[in-house]
Amino acid sequence: MEQTTILHSPTLESVLMVERTIQKHSQECGKYQLWKKLPKKMMYQTFQVILDYLEESGKIMIDKEGCIIWIYNPERIKKLIREELVLK
Fold first, then answer.
1. What's the N-to-C CA distance of the chain in angstroms?
2. How many CB atoms neighbour CB 81 within 10 A?
3. How far apart are CA 25 and CA 6, in angstroms?
4. Is the residue at 87 inside a domain?
5. What average pLDDT does this structure show over 58-63?
6. What pLDDT is attached to residue 87?
7. What sections of the chain are H helices per DSSP?
8. Domain harbouring 52, CATH code
9. 69: which residues sit within 8 A by CB, 6+ positions away?
10. What are 1-56's pLDDT values in tens digits?
11. Domain range holding 69?
12. Quick one: pLDDT at residue 79?
């Protein structure tokens, strides 16, 4: 993640709102369209910071067409741990 000056840091409430919106509209739209679907207004720069965080943390990915996809699946991770998945 490249260093940029952040004018407004996102709140936890904002991050959770973006997460829920992505989960609801996963694989449907790109960044701008998703930003417009948020239930509350948010600065676009703040939205970008949240997307960068979610991508770095492995919760979303953005495909070559720019479509945002929710990939985080904690239930699947728990199942793999229960099945004694061996990690390198």
1. 24
2. 10
3. 26
4. no
5. 94
6. 59
7. 12-24, 31-37, 44-56, 74-82
8. 1.10.10
9. 26, 27, 60, 61, 62, 63
10. 556 666 678 999 999 999 999 999 999 999 999 999 999 999 999 999 999 999 99
11. 12-82
12. 81
